Amino acid sequence: MNSLGLPPIIQGGMGAAVSSWQLAYTVASQGQLGVVSGTALETVVARRLQNGDEGGHMRRALAAFPYQDVAEHILETFYLPNGREGKPFRPMRRISIKAHAEHDQLSVAANFVEVWLAKQAGNGKVGINFLEKLQTATPAALYGAMLGGVDAILMGAGIPREIPQLIRDFADGKPGHLSIDSERPNGMDAPILEFDPMESFGAAPKLAKPAFLAIVTAEVLASYLARNEVTRPDGFVVEHHSAGGHNAPPRRMQETETGYGPLDEPNFQKIADVGLPFWLAGGRSTPESVANAIALGAQGVQVGSLFALSNESGLLDKYRQEMLAAARKGNLRVRTDHRASPTGFPFKVVEMPGTVGEEGTYKARPRLCDLGYLRSSHIDEAEKVTYRCSAEPDSPFLKKGGEEDDLRERICLCNGLMAAIGLGQERADGYKEAPLLTLGTTTGDVEAMLKVHPDGWSATDVIDRLLSGMPANAK
Q1: Residue 185 lies in a domain
Q2: 93-114 as b/e, with b when 16 or more CB fall inside 10 Å?
Q3: SS3 per residue for 432-474
Q4: Are the C-beta atoms of 450 and 328 separated by less than 8 Å?
Q5: What is the CATH number of the domain that holds 208?
Q6: Residue 246 within any structural domain of the chain
Q7: Tens digit of each residue's pLDDT (9 = 90 or more) over 389-408
Q8: What is the pLDDT of residues 281-318, one digit of tens each?
Q9: CB under 8 Å to 426, separation ≥6 — which residues?
């Protein structure tokens, strides 16, 4: 163990709730850091309840939620004992730069639920992963995770300079504040989103302070965050651009298959010189790459793809099996798509028939934006706020000031990722959302794992493989 008390193996995940509580529970029970996804958990939990809450896990966790009046209201609103019976999922309020009490309560409760369930592993460590780009979702979600006793917060896809202070404020029982990156006139201050536990629950207890690991891609960002005590994290996950999900853009677009080049390789010595513990991620799922990470000064590794394809993953089994079948034939393909995500960040897309990562399925999908997690906010001179997403229908996007070129080849990540975990919307006209799948580009690691576990593997199998590459004194 290091100074943070965190283990050498960090379980990553690929998409909303792929790194589910079941997966994190298993990893934590094995003495490593199990990590749940904090993306869109209020939608995930609400839809699980509408599907009948198989196994009763959502209700079991809500029974432990400290504010039972809120838990009861959530159950009254969303729980359907017999499931939806073919009806669409209930529409959700979309997040915005202004707090909304009922939605904040749901977000807090949902993040509490996912962390609390994973924490039932006993003394195992549990983390939660957030996207910095989803700023308007962060304060309430982070508070809910802390209320559930989370041990570590991980955040990437942006510059998380205000997160350390947000964590400290919540730990001290204070309201938390976060600046929102809105497009606005010159001279206008960034809007501030506040979450006040006292307003939402009538109580603001002091909470245990989790470790904060900033996900960075280069020594420049690590040094910037660490030089000031206000922005300094407790450590870093240094993520290579081969990792799945969202990636940082290339420093300069290259004429390569991925768009990345030598400038995008991190300088590990300079990262080590920053003086904070760090883990390496992206293409680090072989025993040899784990040993190399330790030799470079890292505490260990974060691995996503092998865990995402494990038996405990939140992926719908059908899609997991299809990806494993493709890997067995040597034709599992993952592209670095610089256009897919409405955030403008590159995103790893698995090319599989029947998914929106495949051109025909993508073109057949009607454009719409009803979840809105990746919307950007825009403020005019009169302080009127509008929201737009480049995956929404063309006409409203353009009317709200969007550029036509920005619409090209954008994928609705929100709905696609929900479909990948079996929670895709089934619309009144009969249309069912197709999944979006993501993995890291080093698919050779998956093929190598299949040689040892041809019928698939458990999260424990992944941990055993990774630990076999670590020196005995680092385990």
Answers
A1: yes
A2: ebbbbebeeebbbbbbbbbbbb
A3: ECCCCCCCCCCCHHHHHHHHHCCCCCCHHHHHHHHHCCCCHHH
A4: yes
A5: 3.20.20
A6: yes
A7: 999 999 999 999 999 999 99
A8: 999 999 999 999 999 999 999 999 999 999 999 999 99
A9: 84, 86, 87, 88, 89, 432, 433
